[in-house]
Amino acid sequence: MSTQVFINLAVQDLPKSIEFFKGLGFEQNLQFTDETASSIVISETIYVMLLTHPKFKEFIPKNAGISDARSATEVLVSLTMDNREAVDKMYAKALSLGATSFSEPIEMGSMYSRAIQDLDGHIWEFFYMDMNAAPPQ
Predict the structure, then answer these.
(1) Domains of the chain (ranges plus CATH)?
(2) Number of helices followed by number of strands (H, E) in the chain
(3) Helix H segments across the chain?
(4) What is the DSSP secondary structure assignment for residue 69, as one 8-state letter?
(5) Least confident of 9-13, 51-55, 108-112, 123-127
(6) CA-CA distance, 106 to 109, in Å (whole number)?
(7) Which pLDDT tens digit goes with each residue over 2-45?
């Protein structure tokens, strides 16, 4: 069995966050969705669990707080795209759905990326890496 990745994110407005990720083209798994949480399918092995703040607190120590992703970087989630055009398309789509730009485009030789902050400030980077142009090992 392949290892699966579940990214758990605290969100302020669950319905709006669900619509944001669905708007990016990802599917919602209703089997793991209720009024406190929603599973978003990124790929066969990557899932995002959108959790209301009270639900998120059930999984952390009682005295731990939830970071404000707009004022402190908690994580940078990077997703590969098939090409540069797909990077730009996903970036533009995210902005049209209410995301904000996080940084200028980054070009590092064979890698190209664009980053956004989602509705709750979580940072998502869309990137393409041309493996044929990557330096040899």
Answers:
(1) 1-60 (3.10.180.10), 72-137 (3.10.180.10)
(2) 3, 9
(3) 14-23, 53-57, 84-96
(4) T
(5) 108-112
(6) 10
(7) 899 999 999 999 999 999 999 999 999 999 999 999 999 999 99
